Amino acid sequence: MRRLALLRQRNFRVFYLGYTTSLLGSAMSAIALTFAVLDNGGDAADLGFVFAASVVPQVLVMIGGGVVADRLGRRPVMLVTDATRVAVQGTLAGVLFAGRPPIWLFVLLAALESVGEGVFGPALGGLRAELAPREQLADANALLGVVTSGTAVLGPALAGILIAVTSPAVVIAVDAATFGVSVASLALLTIRPARPAAQSPWRDLADGWSQFRSQTWLWLTTVQFALFNLFTWAPYLLLGPILARQYLGGARAWGVISAAMAAGSVLTGLLLVGRRPHRLLVVATIGTFGYAVPPLLLALRAPVVAVAAGALVAGAGSAVSNTYSNTAMQQRVPAELLGRTTALTLTGAYALGAVGYAVIGSVANVVGPGRLLAFAAGYALLSSVLVLATPTIRATRWVDQSPLAERE
Q1: Are 168 and 36 in contact (CB under 8 A)?
Q2: Rounded-to-integer distance, Cα 151 and Cα 156, Å
């Protein structure tokens, strides 16, 4: 099949199999961790501490992780982080098999796993450009997006089955093993070693910031998603299940909505393979309009079928946006700076969303979940309109030459 020709490239195929396995294990482990905390006497507050430990360290270490990845090489850094996560998840599984670990141990191990993810993400941003020929980078981004969305649905379903017949400890042990598969796949890659560092880490960070700041479209879209995650997506993820329980029938309805979004992303990602839009950032920004649909439908108290259809649209838009914004970065940022640049975009995009979880519930209690989600949808639409109207987005074209050849 021509659309999947990239999988015939050895490096990409080997990494893709290991990365898919690891993503599936992580999606399973997230469900198992929740039930492990509750089964060991934890309450909602304890679960909140564990969830915070799973997010906050990741955001805090991303920028440093990007510098380290660019200095030492993306593959070595990813090997270390995944080997560390084998140990972390293996330890958690072991203490769960042994008895009832205290909540502080859940928090500590969740934080260590989060640090690993925070370093792995920027390194992956740089490694993507080394895994595929330049003319197939968009295809690589689309295919990686497909497995990210697909495992987000399949993982929880498998975890639910395994927890029902075994225990959360078994699922977490499986996650540790999947990180081992990722380590093996990374070890098999043929990647040129990084050049020896010629300057200090602070100079490396300054160079990454200079590159990020010099590309107007890059910091503009980072600001867009920083506020989007605060005003739109965090409210949707937190209040969506609450409204689903209030008027759609509960967890089953929310599961259908979440699965529809993942299906939209998977199907669209496959359709994007082989596509080369001339104005790739215009197309990417058009994709972001889909995010407004499901929160708006929830605010209007639409039936579950309509909300699921809206989530399908959002998933399709997400695949378009992520594929072509990542491709634009790979085409325009020098390869040796991709780790640092990715770290800056990820940190900027997700930091406010993490903070938002602490205040969204209180705001919703005052104004109501429906009104807050209507505001969320309105912001998503307005931000997409404003970004689409900027000259830098409309002027950014698909390029195949050196990333130094065209800069905004």
Answers
A1: yes
A2: 8
CATH of domain 204-408: 1.20.1250.20
Helix runs in 193-303, H state only: 201-214, 216-228, 234-243, 251-272, 280-288, 293-299
* CA atoms of 312 and 111, how far apart (whole Å): 32
pLDDT, tens digit (0-9, with 9 covering 90-100), for 230-271:
899 888 887 887 788 788 887 678 778 888 888 898 889 888
The CATH class that applies to domain 1-186 reads mainly alpha
Alpha-carbon Rg for the chain in angstroms: 21
Quick check: do 1-186 and 204-408 share a fold?
yes
- 349 and 222 Cβ atoms separated by less than 8 Å: yes
**CA triplet 396, 399, 403: central angle to 5 degrees?**
95
User: What does the pLDDT look like over 292-301, one tens digit per residue?
Assistant: 999 999 999 9
CB-CB contact of 314 with 406 (8 Å):
no
Give the CA distances from residue 279 to residues 324, 327, 374, in Å, rounded to whole numbers and listed in that order.
10, 12, 31
Where are the domains positioned within the chain? 1-186, 204-408
261 neighbors 294 (Cβ within 8 angstroms): yes
pLDDT, position 108: 93
Residue 21: which of 191, 266, 185, 267 has the closest Cα?
185
What b-and-e string marks burial along 364-395, b requiring 16 or more CB atoms within 10 Å of the CB? Answer: beeeebbebbbbbbbbbbebbeebbebebbee
Q: Report the pLDDT value the prediction gives residue 406, as an integer from 0 to 100.
A: 41
Pick from 15-19, 62-66, 114-118, 182-186: least confident: 62-66
Convert the pLDDT of each residue in 177-204 to its tens digit.
Answer: 999 999 999 999 887 776 666 677 888 8
Length of the chain equals: 408
